[in-house]
Amino acid sequence: MITEVSGHTLLVFVGIPALVIAVVALLVFAPSIANGPRYRPGLSWWAPPVWINGPTATKPDPANLPELPGAPGTTASAGAGVARSTGGASASW
Amino acid sequence: MPAGDAFTPEQLYDIERAVRHAEEASGLHFSVYVGGADSETRPFALELLNELDDPDNTVLVYVDPAGRRLEIVTGALAKRQLSDTAAGLAALAMQTSFATGDLTGGLVTGVQQLGTHAHQAPLLHANEPHKQ
Question: Cross-referenced Pfam families, in alphabetical order (chain B) (predicted)?
Fold first, then answer.
């Protein structure tokens, strides 16, 4: 015997469980939605470069500097600073 | 991957605060770069250091999230204050956080550690003449 399903029955047996599922799903995914995409090692990096405390003013490019009249033989070397002795450490993960 | 910024404003604030504290503690300049490298990471980090205003007194932390590489570069004068061993210890701490996906936490911890290692005790009465 098939009985007709009333609106009230649908609400109790379908609507309430669906609402509970929606609330739980929202609670689970809310932090990641709020924080945006998270860095996951091994996957590609999506964001543009960030430089905190970077150069305040752009240094003049030695190649574009006007040549001084009294020093015809001298040329500016852009890589001179790279040769300076530096220290530090490296790591990978 | 969806497009977006690497850090939220709160995360950026935390990193900037750590940088500021490290600078106050050590008297050195600190700079943090997060992004991909055009070439090998070490030469690229050195190029970045030389673009800064005072490279000799600067400690640059370079993180390549895609290549999973970290470089700490100390300038010619900064390395007298911050040894390679101390930089290696900070790199180890950062590496641990980065491996779990925590970029911000790793940067904050690492920069704090670098600032602490580079800390110099103040010289009291150094400018006063010696009195008998």
Answer: DUF5130
